[in-house]
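SAMPLE LOG
Freezer: B-3
Tube label: C17
Construct: single chain, 280 aa
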Amino acid sequence: MINYNGKIQAQEAPHIGLENRGLHYGDAVFETIKVVGNKILFAEPHYFRLMSAMRIMRMSIPMTFTPEFIYQEILDLTQACSPAPAYRVKFLVWRSWGGGYEPTAEEVSYMIQCTPLQASDYGFDSHRPYTVELFKDHYMASGLLSNVKTNNRAINVLGSIYAKENGFDNCLLLNEQKQVIEALNGNLFLVKGYTVKTPPLADGCLKGIIRGALLELLAQHPDYILEEASISPFELQRADELFITNAVIGLQPISQFRKKQFRTVVGQELLSLLQAKALS
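STRUCTURE (predicted):
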């Protein structure tokens, strides 16, 4: 099921016309959200990130786009879907049609897509290896636009194809300064001793919701030192742990990068804290 501009309809129903700026120019932003029961996990950070993305993209924000409206639209859709332990929700907003790069319309349209998930909790298969490699065919640009979830994901698509063709579970992306900034589908964290490190937003990584939640948890944790600093590719093989975060999986440890194998001790502990924070 989908919600298209406030109307819930079947996924198969025709709902988007060809005159769509998201389709033609990548002029769209989106949020990927996890819903468990009637609870939108990290609802407020998701809402404010969506509003921030629309402002950065100079979209006109409708007066109706209040937190209460957005939350209710999401929950109405999940309740209309088949029962499931949890749902992956994609909230997509695009500028209404206006030919050319300079839009002539000020309005926006939106679509909410709902996909059932098999598990409500964050978690991963600790018995399954999870290997990654650097994707060096193309580089992300550091700066503000890379922090925003637009639908222009060409590098992520090409990196996913590269990973599949070469037998990797994921790839790590580099910026134009050859610094490691994130994975194809989430933020990257590196653990060395008691230091937990993640790239700063200035390097071009996505301003992830789970990234933000973990930064809050780590800042208050007595046992770990939090560091937001650039990560060199050479640091990866010297790390004790690497893990990826996003709104659906929560936290995914990396078991191997090239010949280096990693443990998952800190990742397991942080995952438990993250689960408690999500449901609080």
